[in-house]
Amino acid sequence: MINTIKKTHHSSTAGFTIIKKDKQTRARLGILTTPHGIIKTPSYVFVGTYGKFLHLKPSDIPKTKSQLVIANTFHLWDTVLQSNKSMRQLAEKNKKLDTFLTQKLGLNIPTMTDSGGFQVLSLAFGDKNKVGKFMTGDSKPDASYKRSKIRITQKGVHFNFKGEKSFLGPKLSMKLQSKIGADIIFAFDQITSPLDDYEYNRKAVELTDKWAKICLKTRDPKQMLFGIVQGGLFKDLRIKSAKSIGFMPFDGFGIGGSYTKKQISKMLKWVVPYLPEEKPRHLLGVGKVADVFEAIDNGIDTFDCVIPTREARHGRLYTKTGHMDIRRGAFSNDKKVIEKGCGCLTCSSKISRSKIRALIKNEDRELNAKGQRWCLMHNMWFFNNLLNEIRASLARGSYQSYKTKFLKKFNS
RNA sequence: GGGGGUGUGGUGGAGUGGUCAAUCACAACAGACUGUAAAUCUGUCGGCCGUGUGCCUUCGUAGGUUCGAAUCCUACCGCCCCCA
């Protein structure tokens, strides 16, 4: 089983170093060191939920310049517990791939896992509720809103998934995350929805605190464990949570929860001052272009988001002037590359817009997957390149002007 | 020359007397996607405006039957198949 995989982690190889702080914002340039390599921060973290990227080969990932990948404990749950012969054989063949997750990825790079806590939110609602992480400013709480599918106790969360009863809590999450073996793991927290009231959030903060302590106690010491700040939309709860979680001996901190649109920045301004300056900060699940700058401005070092990959699969491609829907008929005869001067594999291979369009709109699974791969290669590279340029501007001390210039050109 | 079949909105293709401006799919157009139950979802898709259980014009063409026709009848036109 997984025990046969030799672990080469050494906690001494993990850490975070701040190289430079921006003078005008809270932004900082840093290096996050893990047993599987270093991450230059600020950095985008790409979401490979099942320990892989749909339609990408392991060798594609380095070509996108991705530094860090986050997978999900909830989704890997079954497979990591299964005795897996092929996985063991793989481990013996390629001894460099020393964890379950790097084996899944087929690649020896720094990884994270989410605790599965987010699924408590996303799986908790009936399809009718349509409540996600974000709520538009004018959304109003719906009378039908209720958490009909979950029951939260002091030990964790009971819920139904695909008709089966499940339970996930801090202890089990730590156990699973240890088996998965990511370099950085997250505490099991209680995320709330934008529709939850003060009282519900207050309790969630308390429970998140309690679970945080359990996670610290039952963690695998070879991994870096990040605690998570909650508090919903409420300033005093956010601060309370940040103080409390920030005081605990975590290796870094995640900021979680859900928001109304355009509120991320405000929330970060409440929370970040209460987190230890010398430790890395991760913003969970946020990553549109504008949000990237907001996060970095407010002292965030890493952040993960499905936007680049999901939108790529849906045909939305990013350029410095905004994004395009490659499926549009207007591109059917467009022989140009997605973006002139782009260094991604797709653009440097001179794959035309019309070609990508034809592939991604093709019913044939294989051709469609090829089209999606070109889109993924482009978007992931785009975001990594953006972060690379941001880092360069931080190093030069011209972050603010880079940001202004970039956003002026970029139409979201 | 004889027999049979067929003709529907950008395309394919339903519908064979009323609830049909016409199922559905594709294309097109517009929008969404933020710790991935998401290789996905939503909307529009004859014209007009006052956006409505609104008006107008449509189912090869021209007539006819009927209270009422894309649907039945007749003729014509086009295409397909079979026999000569």
UniProtKB/TrEMBL annotation:
One GO CC annotation: cytosol
Domain tRNA-guanine(15) transglycosylase-like: 25-411
GO terms assigned for molecular function: tRNA-guanosine(34) queuine transglycosylase activity
Name assigned to this protein: tRNA-guanine(15) transglycosylase-like domain-containing protein
Pfam families linked: TGT
Glycosyltransferase keyword on record: yes
PANTHER family in the cross-refs: QUEUINE TRNA-RIBOSYLTRANSFERASE
Gene Ontology biological process: tRNA queuosine(34) biosynthetic process
InterPro entries hit by this protein: ArchSynthase1/Queuine_TRR, TGT, TGT-like_sf, tRNA_ribo_trans-like
Keyword line: Glycosyltransferase, Transferase, tRNA processing
Organism listed in the record: Candidatus Yanofskybacteria bacterium RIFCSPHIGHO2_01_FULL_41_21
